[in-house]
Amino acid sequence: MSLLVIGTVAFDAIETPFGKTDKIIGGAATYASISASYFKKDINLVSVVGEDFPSEMIKTFEEKGIHTDGLQIKKGEKTFFWSGKYHEDMNSRDTIDTQLNVLSTFDPIIPEAFQDCEFLMLGNLMPSIQMMVINRMKTRPKLIVMDTMNFWMEIAMDDLLKTISMVDVLTINDAEARQLTGDYSLVKAARKILKMGPKYLIIKKGEHGALLFHEDQVFFAPALPLEDVFDPTGAGDTFAGGFIGYLSSVRDISFESMKRGVIYGSAMASFCVEKFGLERVMNLTDKEVEERVLEFVDLVQFDITLE
Amino acid sequence: MSLLVIGTVAFDAIETPFGKTDKIIGGAATYASISASYFKKDINLVSVVGEDFPSEMIKTFEEKGIHTDGLQIKKGEKTFFWSGKYHEDMNSRDTIDTQLNVLSTFDPIIPEAFQDCEFLMLGNLMPSIQMMVINRMKTRPKLIVMDTMNFWMEIAMDDLLKTISMVDVLTINDAEARQLTGDYSLVKAARKILKMGPKYLIIKKGEHGALLFHEDQVFFAPALPLEDVFDPTGAGDTFAGGFIGYLSSVRDISFESMKRGVIYGSAMASFCVEKFGLERVMNLTDKEVEERVLEFVDLVQFDITLE
Predict the structure, then answer these.
(1) In A194, A215, B178, B239, which residue has its Cα 20 to 30 A from B188's Cα atom?
(2) Residue range B21-37: average pLDDT?
(3) pLDDT score of B97
């Protein structure tokens, strides 16, 4: 019973107030699968790269228990490339360059050996491709988690709404929740989104934490107050990976378990932003993850008992 | 052993995207003392108003256990007046009018009967007056909590820094913490402010909750996700009142107790913003307060136990 992660595997070039990188490895599925690998030892990756993608990274995936049989390598083609620059407050960014390359013709083929999957993570990608993946699963997974972004609301709203209606958990950020619903109040926005299909909604608020909504229940996970946020790239994907990685490892999708998943996801995201790109998330020990989770416990734990 | 609250008692005129008010009663000490009165039954108020201030409100203070012997009423003069307009996101506002009136010559006389005070709340006011109050206490209170705002950083920084150095707990908002220290990172800002004198620092982040810092410990209290924020006026004062009201009622100033105080303060502030001005905070039942606090418990409670 494994976890299937689809999404981009890409090259990024990033500039933040703390510095800039050359082409480094990124992509939603990269961050999500590596983050999940700290909790779950059997992860199947479906994505596409070009001939320019380093084989050492594919080896690294395998070493981390991420099976790459579903990672298509297109001969003579180039890997998806994104370049962006973050503003001073790190909450907003400008896209400088996007080269779709192999992504423009991506046909997400799911290897037969990957069909046996209880947990499906749809990383940020064209909604039509996310939908295609759901339709190609012979048995519907026990839990489908979908991440998306504002870009698809602008150019593929119909596909996006159709895909959203098919998933169990949607993760988006606060600005996107407002854009999707036209409501400034996140409580009102959440109510509308939960009527679109998903039974669970996670609204990510970056440095202000994350909210988990389900029916009339709300859970809030803080972000860890950090000295500096060096690079927010991939934080949302890392969050989603930690969330579904944890859930798939315990195979418990109750609300209580999802709350824990949100904390694990937040802990993983707090590592991600401490260094550029994958650097920090790639090289953690289990002990570091455990200690970080305990920092979250300390951060919000208080003792009030009323009669 | 009582709680002494000083600060403004005022008239406000407020405009938010949800509507506008005529002159209504406001002021930092008003919000703080009323909020505190839900926890503490013996509160001493020191402030100043003009002849135009309604005597019914003074009666209301007394009914709520707030002693007004220290509330000076200046014959032939007018009460401090502030008028402001909030922007769409409710996180920023423009001051439309400020009429200092009685405040311009305020001499904070502390009645002899008020000297016996263990807990002192210095509501937002000229730092020189806050300092004068500290100096006029014959015995230093067990806990001095100070609130302030960016305005004093611009026109009275020296007095402000001197006053900050004399208190135990400083409460300011995130933008003010950044302005006071020049650090964007709240963790770095907090470290600097804790070196200015206060042993505890509370950074209020409005709809994003509040952080309590003490030595190398951090505690985070969320804000309750609300359908709508009608009017943020007084939320910070209401927070401070709930915080010190709770602490003075239990007479425990340990870090654990302060964490609970931050939750009680946050619960009170969450009521404040639900209606215009004092309306909501004025008319709560103990049961409503208790239920709101339990909502905070539910909001952040999760169960992770690691070996």
Answers:
(1) B239
(2) 97
(3) 94
Structure confidence by residue, pLDDT tens digits, B57-114: 999 999 999 999 999 999 999 999 999 999 877 778 899 999 999 999 999 999 999 9
Q: Is-contact A96 A118, C-beta < 8 A?
A: no
Question: Is B211 close to A225, i.e. CB distance below 8 A?
Answer: yes
Could A184 and B89 be called an inter-chain contact, meaning their C-beta atoms sit closer than 8 Å? yes
pLDDT range class, residue A307, cuts 50, 70, 90: low
Cβ pair B220:A300 closer than 8 A: yes
Q: How many domains, chain A?
A: 1
Q: 3-state class of B211 per DSSP?
A: strand
- Put simply, the answer to whether B89 touches A186 (Cβ < 8 Å) is no
The shortest C-alpha distance from B259 to chain A (Å) reads 6
Nearest C-alpha in A relative to B307: A290
A306 within some domain: no
Q: What are the tokens at A248? A: 């798939």
Tens digit of each residue's pLDDT (9 = 90 or more) over B215-231: 999 999 999 999 988 99
Q: How far is CA B23 from CA B71, B88, B97, B98, B228, in A?
A: 20, 22, 12, 13, 23
Q: Which residues contact B112 (CB under 8 A, 6 or more apart)?
A: none
Let me know: does A167 contact A145? Beta carbons within 8 Å. yes
**Where residue A114 sits, what CATH number does that domain have?**
3.40.1190.20
Q: Cβ of A215 under 8 Å from any chain B Cβ?
A: no
Look at residue B248 and tell me if it is in a domain: yes
pLDDT band at B305 (very low <50, low <70, confident <90, very high): confident
Domain range holding B116? Answer: 2-300
Question: Would you say residue A307 lies in a domain?
Answer: no
pLDDT on residue A207: 92
Q: Provide the ipTM.
A: 0.91
- Taking CA atoms, what residue in A is nearest to B303? A260
Query: Is residue B307, in this structure, part of any structural domain at all?
Result: no
State which amino acid sits at residue B41.
K
B222 vs A209: CB contact, 8 Å cut-off? yes
How far off is chain B from A181, nearest CA to CA, in Å? 14
What pLDDT, on the 0 to 100 scale, is given for residue B1?
A: 66
pTM for the full predicted model? 0.94
Confidence tier at A88 by pLDDT (50, 70, 90):
confident
